[in-house]
Amino acid sequence: MVPASNLVVAYQSDVATTPPVLYVEEGTNNAIALDSVTFVKGPFRLSNEHNFSGDQRTRIIILTSFLGLKQSDLSDPAALVVELGGVNLPVENVGTLSILGLNSSYIVVRLPDNTPTGPSELKVRLRGVTSDVKMLTISP
Predict the structure, then answer these.
(1) Beta strand 44-45 with 134-139: parallel, antiparallel or unpaired?
(2) Distance (Å, rounded) from C-alpha 102 to C-alpha 63?
(3) How far separated are the first and last CA of the chain, in Å rounded?
(4) How is residue 48 annotated by DSSP?
(5) Given a cut of 60, is residue 31 above it in pLDDT?
(6) What burial class does residue 111 get, using C-beta atoms within 10 Å of its C-beta: 0-12 exposed, 13-18 middle, 19+ buried?
(7) Which class for 28: exposed (0-12), middle (13-18), buried (19 or more C-beta within 10 A)?
(8) Range with the poorest average pLDDT among 50-54, 102-106, 113-117, 119-123
(9) FRET partner for 23 with CA separation of 20 to 30 A, picked from 51, 68, 107, 121?
(10) Are 138 and 42 in contact (CB under 8 A)?
(11) What average pLDDT does the structure give for the chain?
(12) Could you give the CA distance from residue 42 to residue 61 in angstroms, rounded to a whole number?
């Protein structure tokens, strides 16, 4: 807060201070992730002929702690980065949801051609603050 004449001006940082949390399957280090069409958990295939996209690429929903993002925030590519095995996954959607009274978020990503197969490290970077690492498996 800064005094200015007869006003008090308050500034708030736009930078996240706590890292996002990737939710995991109970008793594992595997990220909770679902196919965006079938809602089936992984391992995920790179493409899927039974989805609604023209490119047949698999889209995955990843569940996280509350990110405080709206779809319009994705216009800034640095606002949210999802990385799997060193490859940035295109983020197509983000939103909020309630899970057992928790304020949470979801992220929908597309699996590009260069997505690594097998178990890989998954992490999310929210405005420069990186989550802990969880695992996600992509089948060839």
Answers:
(1) parallel
(2) 12
(3) 54
(4) -
(5) yes
(6) buried
(7) exposed
(8) 50-54
(9) 51
(10) yes
(11) 89
(12) 11
In order of start, what are the domains of the chain with their CATH numbers? 16-139 (2.60.40)
Cα separation of 41 and 136, whole Å? 10
64 Cα distance to chain centroid: 7
Amino acid 140: pLDDT: 82
Long-range contacts of 48-51 (CB under 8 A, 24+ apart): none
The identity of residue 26, as a single letter, is: E
CB 59 within 8 A of CB 36: yes
> Which tokens is 60 given?
């995955």
Helix (H) or strand (E) holding 63: strand 59-65
CB 24 within 8 A of CB 120: no
Higher pLDDT: 13 or 18? It is: 18
> What pTM, to 2 d.p., does this model score?
0.85
CA-angle at 75, arms to 1 and 103, nearest 5°: 65
Distance in angstroms (rounded) separating the CA atoms of residues 31 and 51: 22
Structure tokens of 42?
């992984």
